[in-house]
Amino acid sequence: MKNLNLWIVSISTIIISLTSCAPKPTKIVPPEFKAGQNQFHRVCANCHGADALGKNTKAPGLIDPEYLPENFSNDEIYKQVIEGSDKMPSQRNKISDSEITEIIKYLRYSQKEADLAIEEDEPDESDE
């Protein structure tokens, strides 16, 4: 019996430590974006980094001009999450449609708060 209890405690500890490995949020967001932040950190933060900043991670940070709506629409984010790509596995079995919508709201809020701007291409000297 003692070995069984020790085994149960050991397995429980391993499970808890594995599920708590995702980076925790460091930014405080308004209540209407909290659900998206929580879902992001549950599903996306292991690869895209804490607060979607991507520092020292295997996937890009999403708080970047490249991922602003003008360059990467909400539909494109949704499709990427559902279908995946050669660089990112599908997350379909980990998250619902409504949770993806909340994540997108959170990302758009975070991008706005970061005061990102689309970078203008430098004109070629030959264009003048």
Structural description of this entry:
This protein has 128 residues and is mostly helical. The chain has a domain at 33-117: Orthogonal Bundle (Cytochrome Bc1 Complex, Chain D, domain 2). It is 48% helix and 0% strand. It has five helices and no strands. Helix 4 (74-83) crosses helix 5 (97-113). The protein is elongated and about 80 Å long. It starts with a helix and ends in a 15-residue tail after the last helix. Mean pLDDT is 85; it is low at 16-20.
Task: Considering the chains and any ligands shown, give keywords for the structure.
128 residues; mainly alpha; Cytochrome Bc1 Complex, Chain D, domain 2; 5 helices
Instruction: Output the CATH topology of the domain at 33-117.
Output: Cytochrome Bc1 Complex, Chain D, domain 2
Major sheet summary line: none
Query: Under the CATH scheme, which architecture of the domain at 33-117 would be assigned?
Result: Orthogonal Bundle
- Give the DSSP E fraction (strand runs of 2 or more residues): under 5%
Uncertain stretches: 16-20
Strands, total number = 0
Mean pLDDT: 85
**Shape descriptor:** elongated
Q: Determine the CATH superfamily of the domain at 33-117.
A: Cytochrome c-like domain
Helix content: 40-55%
What's the order of the H and E elements?
A: HHHHH
Termini separation comes to 83 Å
